[in-house]
Amino acid sequence: MLSDNISCGSKLLLALPDDIFAVVTRSLTPKDVSNLSVCCQNLYVHASSDKVWLTQCELLGVIPHKDIIEWRKGVNSYKALCRFLVYVQPLIGIWVHQNPELGNVVYVMPGFISLVGCRIIPQELGPLGIEEGPILWSPVFEILGNVDGSSAFIFHGRERDSNYMYPGSIKGIDRSCNVLLLEVEPRQQRHGGKLVHSKSFVSNLSPVDTYSTKICPSDREVSKSQRLQDSKPPVPFSRLAFCDRKRLLEAVTSQIRVKVPQSGDGLCFPCLETEDFDILSERRLRLMEMYNSGLSTDPTQSDLGEIRKLFDNSQLHRDGCRTQSSKKKSLAGIFRDSFKHIIGKSGSINGSHEHSKSSSSSGNHKHAQFQEFLRSGDTIGLTLHASTARLSSYRAWPNMHDSRFALYKLPKQEPLAGQEHAGLWGGTFGWPPGKPSADKPGKALFFLLLSYEETQGQRHLIGTKILEGTHYVLHPNGSAMFIVNMNEPSDESFPWDCDGDSSFLDLKEVFAGEGIANGYGFRYPGSKPGSLFVFENGMLVFVWKETRAVLTLQRVNMQDLLKKGERVPPLPPIANFSYLTKSYSNVYAGFSNASNHTSSPRGFYEEGGVEETSGVVATRKSVSGIRWVVHKTDNPLSQWTDFMMLGLFCMVKLRCGHCKRLAPEYEKAASVLANHDPAIVLAKVDADVEANKELAGKYEVQGFPTIKILRNAGEKIQEYNGPREADGIVTYLKKQVGPASPEIKTKEDVESLIDDKKIFIVGIFPKFSGEEYENYMILADKLRSDHDFGHTSNAKLIPRGDSSITKPTLRLLKPFDELFVDSKNFEVDAMEKFIEESSTPLVTFFDQSADNQPFISKYFNSPDSKAMLFLNYDHAKQDLFKSTFHEIAGLYKGKGLVFLMGDVKDSENILEYFGLNGDQTPALVLQDTKGVKYVRQNVQADHIAPWLKDFTDGKLKPYIKSEPIPETNDEPVKVVVTKSINDMVLESKKNVLLEIYAPWCGHCKKLAPILEEVAVSFEQDPDVLIAKFDGTKNDIPSDTFDVQGYPTLYLRSSHGKLLKYDGNRTKDDLIEFIQKNRDAASESIEFIQKNSDATSESTSASAKDEL
C-alpha cells in the first residue's frame, strides 16, 4: 500500500468533507470504492468511513434505508453489511421447479441481516382477498450474515413432527446465477476444521465456514498425505448417479440436522404491522450460536466406526441394492442403510456388478463412482451453489433437468415504457374479482409472470402460470395461460358493467389474443380465442370468447404479501428444496393442518429412486402411492402383486388426453387407498416404453387408458368398469375388497348396502347351501366389478318385492322402470343374461348426474343399434315426446335397438359430434352396429315410430357429416372434406399424404407450416398431393382410417396402398417417407429430390435474409 506518494487527485479527495466524499462515491460501485481504499493509507481511512458504505448499501437497493439502519446494529460496520448485501443480491427473485405440476415456487427475499427462501404454498384465496389475506408460506433456506459480513447457509426441513435446520456452506454465488443447486461436497480440513474465505470485494466472496460430517474414505492403505497429493481433479457432485446423489443428501442431512427450538422458529423477516427488530435480532443470534456450536466438534463422531465397518464388510455390498424395509429405523440405522445403498450401487470394491448396469448411460457419459467422489476430501458437508447455466426457455419458462436437486430463476421483466404490464400478477378465475363469493367460497389463487416477446414484428404479452392453488393441476407450470397481440386492438365489449362492490368499471383498452384450451398440456395444449381487458385501476382481465371463462389479475408485490403472510412448517428436507416427483395433485394440502402436515393425505415416501426385483422395476413412485411398472419377465406384474389382494393396473400413453384427464383423479384415489387394510395398490404402465408394448397384447389393451382389476396376487384379472373420478374409484374398490356378496341380516345392513339410486342384486335363500346358492356366489364373484350383490334368508328385509317367498329367488332392484324384477333360474349363464337385460333402462337419460353415468356408459358400450332423441326440456310438447319415445322403446325391447334421450343443455358436445345444434332439435339420431348414422332434424313426436320402422327395414339414407366442398382449393395443402374424400384421396390415382387434424390441436398448429413446406416441394409433381382433413367437422371413414388422436397422417399410394405415418414430423422425414412409399408414375424421383433441394436452398436464403 502506498503511503507517501499521494497524487494531486488523492489530495483533492482527502480534502473533501465526509458528506461530500460520500456523495462523490455514489457514482462508484462497491468494488471501485474497495479499490480506491488500497491506493494509499489516508484514502483507506477515508474510503472506509461508515458514511461512504452507508451510501453504497443504499445504492444497492436491496433493502430500504430504515432497514439498513437496523441491520447495521448486528454487524461490525456498514462495509461489512455492504459485503454481505453484494454477495447475496443475485439470489433475490423468483425460483421455480417444474414438479409438482401445481407449482414449486420459492421467493428469495431479505430477512433480517439475512436472505430467506420462502416456498409459496398453492392455496385458495382467503376471505380478505389477495392484498389483505395472509399468504401461506414455508421456509426453505436462510443465508445469515455474520458480524464481519461473511455468510452462513441454513437449510430447513421437517422430520417426525419437528422442525430442523441443516447447516452448510455456500460454494459460490455467480453474479448472473440462474440455477440454485443443493449439493454435498467433500473438503480437506484446514484451520481447525474451518474454511477461510476472502473478505475483499476484489475477489469473489466465499463462505466463512463449513459445517461438515467427517467420513473416512474406505481405502485405508492410502494415507491422508498421499490423498492430498493426488493429482486427480475433484469429482463434481453432479457426476454421481441420481440415486447416489439422493441417498448421499439424505445421509448427510440426517447427520448434521439440529432441532430448532421455539426461539429459533419464529419470524424470519419483519412483518409490515410490527417490524419487531428486537425479536428478529434475538432469533438471528440464536441461530448463529447453533450454527457455530457445531464447528468445533464433529457431530457424527459416534457413527464413524460403524461407517468404516460398512466399507470393510463385503456382505453389505450384496445387500445394498435390495429393497429396504419399510419399518421404522433409528437415526443410525437410517444412516447405515443410506450408505449400504450408496456403496452397493457405486462402490468399486469387489467390482460390483450392479454398478456396471446403473452407472452408465446410453451415451458416452459415465457416472462417477462413490469412492472416487469421496477421495477428494476427508470431510463432507452440505453446500448451496448458485451457478450460471446456458438454459433454453419457452415462453419465459426455463427448460429444466428432471434429476437435479435444483431451483431455476425466472427472468423477470421490469414494467417499463412499452412493457407496462410486465412482472408478477396474482388473481383468480370467476367474476367478480378478488374476494370469494357465497356461491364460490374457495377460489384457487393463481400467480402469473407476464412478459413481452417480439415475434415476426408483433409484440406479444405472455401470461406464464407459475403457481396454481387448485387441488389437482389444470395446466402444468410454465403453461401460457394467455398470449395477447399488443399490436391488435379489439372492439370486444366487456361482459359486465360493474365489479362485486357495485363500482362501475373504467375500461382503458382491449387487445385480441388466445387463452389456453381445456385439456392438460404444456407446450401445445391448444388455445381458444379471447380478449385482454385493461382497466384504469390497473386490473387485467382475460375473457375466453366461447366459454366466457374469466381470469382476473392484479399486480402483486410478493415481498409485501409474505410479510403479511402466515408461516407453515416445511417439507421433509430434500423434498423441501426440490420436489422432483411429478405429481398432478396438491402435495402441500397437509399444510391446512400444520400439526400433522407430514401425514398429509398424499404422504411422503422415505424410499426413492428405483426399486429393482427380478420381475418389475417400480419407478417414479409418486407421493400418492401410484407405482410405475416396467415389464422385464414373462410374468410382469407378479412381483408387484405378490403382496396385495386387490389392485388396479392402468396402461396409459403420457400424451393421451384421456389419460391426462384421468391422472389427477387416479392419483387422488391412490392417496386415499394407500393405507387401506388390506392393501389396495394402484399402478400405471407407460405404453410408450418399448419394453411394455408386449403387455398391451397380453392384457388385450385396445385403447387408452385401459384399467384392469387384479385379484389374489394377480391370479385373476377383470375389466374395470367403475367410475373415472377419485371418489367413485375409492368407493368402487373398497367394495371389491370384501366378500362378493355380503350377508344381509338387519335393517342396518340394508341401509348401508342398498342405494335407491343404483342397481342392487339380492339372492334370497332358505339356507346358504345347495346348487342355487353356490351358482349365485360364482356369479357374484364374476360380476362384482359391474354390480353390487348381497344375500339374505329373510325376504322381509328387502325394501321392494314379495316378502313371503320361500324358494331361492334372484331379485334385481333398480331405480327405473318397474323398480324390481325376480328370476328363479339359477343357471349361471341364465342369471347373467337376466341381469344384463334387466339392468338396462328402456330409455337412458343423458345428463350430468354422477349416479346416471354408469347407465350412460353402458348405453354407449352396447353392441346394439342406438336411437337417440335430443330436445329442449322446456319445449311445450316435451311430455308428449317423452311418453311417445318411452312407449316405442318398450316395443323394441330385446330387438337389438336401445334408446337414449337428452336435454339440449346437457347435450351440446354430442350434438356437435353429430354436426347438429340446438336450433335443429328435436332431433332423432340413429346409429347402426357398423357406426352408420341417420339423422332427422326438427322431428315431430308422431314421426318417430314410422321413421324407426324405415330404419329397421333398411329404407333410410345414411347421414354424412361434412363441410361444404371448398369453391377454391388452390393452396399448397389441399382441403379435403367427407364429400370429396373419395375423389381426392381414395380414388384419386395419386400418392396422397393426408393429415387428419383438429383446429384446436397445438401439435397440428405446429405441423401446419412444415406440411406446407412439404407441399411446396411436390407442387410441380402431378402424382403427389398433400392434403388436410378436419376430423372435428367431417365424418372420418372409420373402416379406412384408424384415428386415435390428432394429428394422424396417412399415405395412400396411387395403387391403393395405405400406410400410417408414425415418424418424426419434420420436412425431411415426411418427404423421405413419401419418396420411399409412393408408387411409380410418370414423374421421376430425381425430380422430387431436385425440387426438395431447391426448396431447402430457398428456405435457407430466406433465413439468412431475416438474420
UniProtKB/TrEMBL annotation:
Residues 612-738, 915-1079 form the Thioredoxin domain. It comes from the Eukaryota. One of its GO terms (cellular component) is endoplasmic reticulum lumen. One of its GO terms (molecular function) is protein disulfide isomerase activity. It catalyses: Catalyzes the rearrangement of -S-S- bonds in proteins. Disulfide bonds join C656-C659, C1001-C1004. Keywords: Disulfide bond, Endoplasmic reticulum, Isomerase, Redox-active center. Pfam families: Thioredoxin (PF00085), Thioredoxin_6 (PF13848). This is protein disulfide-isomerase. It comes from Deinandra increscens subsp. villosa. The lineage of its organism: Eukaryota, Viridiplantae, Streptophyta, Embryophyta, Tracheophyta.
